[in-house]
Amino acid sequence: MQKRLDSALKYFRENEEAEERIKNGIEKNRKGDFSISISGIPDGAKASYKLKNHAFKFGANIFMLDQFEDEALNEKYREIFPKTFNLATLPFYWKDQEPIKGKTRYEKGSDPIYRRPPVDACLEYCTEKGIEPKAHCLNYDYFRPEWLYGASVMEHKAALEKRFSELAARYADKIPSWEVLNEPFNDPYDLYSEFYGAPDYASWSFIKAKEYFPNNHLILNDHVSLGCMLLPHGDIIPNRSAYYVMARDILREKDARLDSIGFQYHSFFDKEKEAEIARYRYNPANLFRILDEYASLGTKMQITEITLPAYSASAEDEKTQAELLRSTFRLFFSIENMEAIIYWNLNDGGASGAHENKYFGGLLRPDLTKKPVYEALEELLSEWHTEGEGEIRNGSLDFRGFYGDYEITIDNKTFSVSLTESNQKINVIC
After folding, report:
1. Short-list 163, 75, 62, 164, CA closest to 120
2. What number of CA atoms fall less than 13 Å from residue 428's CA on the CB side?
3. CA distances (Å), 240 to each of 115, 266, 290, 310, 410, in order?
């Protein structure tokens, strides 16, 4: 059982310096010292505190909401999702949202498309469960509608600006964060679109996003960031990659705004290649090297999509998948500028094609029972939790904990506070 586990985790296990950095990074970057000044309660009174919602975002896509033929599985999916995640990626694929020009599928009850639940249904669920929604995505060449094929650059821009305007009017006040571009290096351009070959297509997209979504969090996302950039011998220089240059240039564009750089981390490769690929892909030294370079740009970062393969339902493969999640999540969570980790498909067998499904990359089995990888995530979230008791001293309740929203109980009175900065002081009157 240990053979695959040892080869996949070899570089995480051997790098003591990286392990120390991870431990210190979590303690320094994800936790703070808090002081809650209490009026009306005498010193010595007992108090309790409990983290209710992490400031850090742990998410998954919500593409399988109400997509199962078995209604019992739909209900189980609805129950499981909020137990682990406080963020959901919603499907904003233009091709499926507006398959016919001028006819959109935003409303609950729209014509069904597999893995593309209507946004309004997703928002209703997120509101009910207290989950933050995230839009994926405004502009994606691979999923543009067929009716746009052959359009000129001007026609394409006009259609996109209309889309931006409609989505902003309908959802800007409901969805805090928006991926503006997704996978811009998937196909830089093709025979069907002059727009994606235009030199200003990326900057134009962020300029227009800033115009229509002035109060929203704007994100760039691609798969070449952490995956394809890491070559076997570490011979790539991060700040010379096309993705780095694109992000840097958007940040320098005075009329644009980029708030977060997104990194996909899908391990879509054959099992037979894993031992070799682990030398750079599952190597904390390489991951830190890439992320440190991007951090120098001074903006936030997200792991926008991550898939870790089991390859099969065997005990060895499922255990290896679980340990890969534990190792990579701990590293990503430790990074100062990181603000979210979003696992991609919640369950096996739910992806849109055989390519993704063959990796057994979900956290749950097709029947939504827990795999060891899901249990590993549960254990991490339990470890990254703050809950305890104290007493009022010198008029305040002081404690150290993870950043987020807390429930404080004193003298049978309960109130909520948001603690997002170290040495934060809040005044409360009981």
Report:
1. 62
2. 23
3. 36, 22, 11, 33, 55
User: pLDDT tens digit string along 157-182?
Assistant: 999 999 999 999 999 999 999 999 99
Q: How far is CA 55 from the centre of its chain?
A: 13
Residue 133 tokens, joined: 């929604």
Helix/strand/coil for 45: coil
Distance CA 331, CA 323 (A): 12
Percent residues over pLDDT 90 in the chain = 82
- In this structure, of 29-43, 49-63, 184-198, the range with the lowest mean pLDDT score is 184-198
Structure token digits, residue 158: 């006009």
CA distance 403 to 422: 8
Residue 187, pLDDT > 90, answer no
Q: What is the pLDDT of residues 74-106, one digit of tens each?
A: 999 999 999 999 999 999 999 999 999 999 999
Residue with the two structure tokens 């830190």: 288
Question: What angle in degrees, to the nearest 10, is found between the helix axes of 284-295 and 2-14?
Answer: 50
* 3-state class (DSSP) for residue 78: helix
Q: What is the CA radius of gyration of the chain?
A: 23
CATH domain 2-388 topology: TIM Barrel (3.20.20)
Pairs from 70-73 (Cβ < 8 Å, separation ≥ 24): 73/367, 73/368
Domain positions in the chain are 2-388
